[in-house]
Amino acid sequence: MKKIKLGILISGRGSNMQALIKACQDQSFPAEIACVITNNGEAAGLKIAKQAGISAFVVEGRPLGTDKIHEILVQHKVDLVCLAGFMRILKADFLSKWHDKVINIHPSLLPSFKGLNAQEQALKAGVKITGCTVHYVTPEVDAGTIIVQAAVPVLPNDNIQSLSERILVEEHKCYVEAVRLIAAKIAN
Description:
This protein has helices at 15-24, 44-51, 66-75, 92-97, 118-125, 160-187, and strands at 4-10, 31-38, 56-58, 80-83, 102-106, 129-136, 146-153. It is α/β, with parallel strands linked by helices. Helix 1 runs parallel beside helix 6 (160-187).
Protein backbone atom coordinates (compact mmCIF):
# COMPACT_ATOMS: atom_id res chain seq x y z
CA MET A 1 0.00 0.00 0.00
CA LYS A 2 1.32 3.42 -0.96
CA LYS A 3 1.16 5.77 2.00
CA ILE A 4 0.64 9.50 1.62
CA LYS A 5 3.20 11.73 3.32
CA LEU A 6 1.99 14.19 5.93
CA GLY A 7 3.56 17.45 6.96
CA ILE A 8 2.18 18.58 10.31
CA LEU A 9 2.25 22.23 11.44
CA ILE A 10 1.94 22.88 15.17
CA SER A 11 2.27 25.78 17.59
CA GLY A 12 1.79 24.13 20.97
CA ARG A 13 1.36 20.84 22.77
CA GLY A 14 0.68 18.78 19.65
CA SER A 15 -2.11 16.50 20.91
CA ASN A 16 -3.71 16.19 17.46
CA MET A 17 -0.24 15.51 16.06
CA GLN A 18 0.11 12.74 18.67
CA ALA A 19 -3.16 11.20 17.49
CA LEU A 20 -1.81 11.19 13.92
CA ILE A 21 1.54 9.73 15.06
CA LYS A 22 -0.31 6.92 16.83
CA ALA A 23 -2.49 6.25 13.76
CA CYS A 24 0.57 6.17 11.49
CA GLN A 25 2.19 3.51 13.70
CA ASP A 26 -0.52 1.10 12.49
CA GLN A 27 0.86 -0.54 9.34
CA SER A 28 -2.60 -0.54 7.77
CA PHE A 29 -3.01 3.26 8.12
CA PRO A 30 -2.57 4.89 4.68
CA ALA A 31 -0.26 7.73 5.77
CA GLU A 32 3.12 8.43 7.31
CA ILE A 33 4.49 11.61 8.84
CA ALA A 34 7.31 13.11 6.79
CA CYS A 35 7.97 16.20 8.92
CA VAL A 36 6.69 18.49 11.65
CA ILE A 37 7.06 22.26 11.47
CA THR A 38 6.38 24.75 14.25
CA ASN A 39 6.36 28.50 14.48
CA ASN A 40 7.19 28.22 18.19
CA GLY A 41 10.60 26.95 19.26
CA GLU A 42 9.16 26.26 22.73
CA ALA A 43 6.25 24.11 21.48
CA ALA A 44 5.85 20.97 23.58
CA GLY A 45 4.95 19.10 20.41
CA LEU A 46 8.53 19.49 19.14
CA LYS A 47 9.80 17.12 21.81
CA ILE A 48 7.05 14.62 20.98
CA ALA A 49 7.95 14.70 17.27
CA LYS A 50 11.65 14.23 17.98
CA GLN A 51 10.95 11.35 20.40
CA ALA A 52 8.95 9.69 17.62
CA GLY A 53 11.92 10.06 15.27
CA ILE A 54 10.17 12.58 13.03
CA SER A 55 12.14 15.38 11.36
CA ALA A 56 11.11 18.59 13.12
CA PHE A 57 11.76 22.20 12.13
CA VAL A 58 11.25 25.62 13.70
CA VAL A 59 10.26 28.48 11.39
CA GLU A 60 9.68 31.56 13.50
CA GLY A 61 9.24 35.22 12.69
CA ARG A 62 6.76 37.83 11.65
CA PRO A 63 5.75 37.69 8.95
CA LEU A 64 5.72 33.92 9.02
CA GLY A 65 8.37 32.37 6.76
CA THR A 66 5.97 30.52 4.47
CA ASP A 67 8.63 30.26 1.74
CA LYS A 68 10.78 28.26 4.18
CA ILE A 69 7.77 26.14 5.22
CA HIS A 70 7.00 25.46 1.54
CA GLU A 71 10.64 24.48 0.94
CA ILE A 72 10.64 22.02 3.87
CA LEU A 73 7.35 20.45 2.74
CA VAL A 74 8.63 20.02 -0.81
CA GLN A 75 11.96 18.57 0.39
CA HIS A 76 10.05 15.97 2.39
CA LYS A 77 7.72 15.16 -0.55
CA VAL A 78 4.62 16.00 1.51
CA ASP A 79 1.25 15.13 -0.04
CA LEU A 80 -0.98 16.64 2.66
CA VAL A 81 -0.37 19.42 5.18
CA CYS A 82 -2.17 19.00 8.50
CA LEU A 83 -2.58 22.06 10.72
CA ALA A 84 -2.73 20.70 14.26
CA GLY A 85 -3.07 23.60 16.63
CA PHE A 86 -1.10 25.84 14.27
CA MET A 87 -1.93 29.32 15.50
CA ARG A 88 -0.94 31.35 12.47
CA ILE A 89 -2.99 32.21 9.41
CA LEU A 90 -1.50 30.98 6.15
CA LYS A 91 -1.66 33.55 3.37
CA ALA A 92 -3.27 33.03 -0.04
CA ASP A 93 0.06 32.74 -1.90
CA PHE A 94 1.10 29.76 0.25
CA LEU A 95 -2.35 28.17 0.00
CA SER A 96 -2.36 28.53 -3.79
CA LYS A 97 0.81 26.40 -3.92
CA TRP A 98 -0.92 23.79 -1.72
CA HIS A 99 -4.46 24.07 -3.10
CA ASP A 100 -6.70 21.37 -1.56
CA LYS A 101 -3.65 19.91 0.21
CA VAL A 102 -3.96 21.75 3.55
CA ILE A 103 -6.44 20.67 6.23
CA ASN A 104 -7.23 21.99 9.69
CA ILE A 105 -9.09 20.87 12.78
CA HIS A 106 -11.41 23.41 14.43
CA PRO A 107 -13.23 23.01 17.78
CA SER A 108 -16.76 23.75 16.57
CA LEU A 109 -19.31 22.49 14.09
CA LEU A 110 -18.43 24.87 11.28
CA PRO A 111 -19.75 27.14 9.93
CA SER A 112 -20.68 28.06 13.52
CA PHE A 113 -18.13 29.70 15.83
CA LYS A 114 -15.26 30.43 13.47
CA GLY A 115 -11.93 31.80 14.65
CA LEU A 116 -10.46 31.85 18.13
CA ASN A 117 -12.20 30.77 21.35
CA ALA A 118 -14.82 28.63 19.62
CA GLN A 119 -15.68 26.76 22.83
CA GLU A 120 -16.28 30.04 24.68
CA GLN A 121 -18.38 31.28 21.75
CA ALA A 122 -20.51 28.12 21.94
CA LEU A 123 -21.05 28.49 25.69
CA LYS A 124 -21.98 32.17 25.36
CA ALA A 125 -24.42 31.35 22.55
CA GLY A 126 -26.15 28.77 24.74
CA VAL A 127 -26.06 26.00 22.14
CA LYS A 128 -26.84 22.45 23.26
CA ILE A 129 -24.52 20.80 20.74
CA THR A 130 -21.13 21.83 19.43
CA GLY A 131 -18.22 19.70 18.28
CA CYS A 132 -15.30 19.73 15.89
CA THR A 133 -14.66 19.97 12.17
CA VAL A 134 -11.83 18.93 9.89
CA HIS A 135 -11.88 21.11 6.80
CA TYR A 136 -9.77 22.18 3.84
CA VAL A 137 -7.95 25.46 4.46
CA THR A 138 -8.76 28.46 2.29
CA PRO A 139 -7.69 32.10 2.59
CA GLU A 140 -10.94 32.82 4.45
CA VAL A 141 -10.55 31.55 8.03
CA ASP A 142 -12.50 28.36 8.86
CA ALA A 143 -14.45 28.52 5.60
CA GLY A 144 -13.11 25.61 3.53
CA THR A 145 -14.97 22.49 2.49
CA ILE A 146 -15.86 20.26 5.43
CA ILE A 147 -14.34 16.76 5.45
CA VAL A 148 -15.42 15.27 8.81
CA GLN A 149 -17.40 16.53 11.80
CA ALA A 150 -18.32 15.16 15.20
CA ALA A 151 -20.98 16.47 17.55
CA VAL A 152 -20.37 16.98 21.27
CA PRO A 153 -23.20 17.83 23.68
CA VAL A 154 -22.86 20.98 25.77
CA LEU A 155 -23.68 19.95 29.34
CA PRO A 156 -25.45 22.28 31.80
CA ASN A 157 -22.38 22.49 34.08
CA ASP A 158 -19.80 22.88 31.29
CA ASN A 159 -17.09 25.49 31.39
CA ILE A 160 -14.52 26.24 28.69
CA GLN A 161 -12.08 23.63 30.01
CA SER A 162 -14.54 20.76 30.41
CA LEU A 163 -16.10 21.39 27.01
CA SER A 164 -12.68 21.76 25.37
CA GLU A 165 -11.51 18.44 26.83
CA ARG A 166 -14.54 16.55 25.48
CA ILE A 167 -14.22 18.18 22.07
CA LEU A 168 -10.50 17.29 21.96
CA VAL A 169 -11.31 13.57 22.34
CA GLU A 170 -13.44 13.82 19.19
CA GLU A 171 -10.83 15.95 17.39
CA HIS A 172 -8.31 13.13 17.69
CA LYS A 173 -10.73 10.66 16.10
CA CYS A 174 -11.90 13.05 13.38
CA TYR A 175 -8.40 14.06 12.27
CA VAL A 176 -7.36 10.44 11.83
CA GLU A 177 -10.56 9.68 9.89
CA ALA A 178 -10.13 12.74 7.66
CA VAL A 179 -6.58 11.69 6.74
CA ARG A 180 -7.83 8.17 6.01
CA LEU A 181 -10.55 9.53 3.68
CA ILE A 182 -8.16 11.88 1.87
CA ALA A 183 -5.53 9.15 1.47
CA ALA A 184 -8.17 6.91 -0.14
CA LYS A 185 -8.99 9.69 -2.63
CA ILE A 186 -5.33 10.34 -3.45
CA ALA A 187 -4.69 6.61 -3.96
CA ASN A 188 -7.47 6.34 -6.56
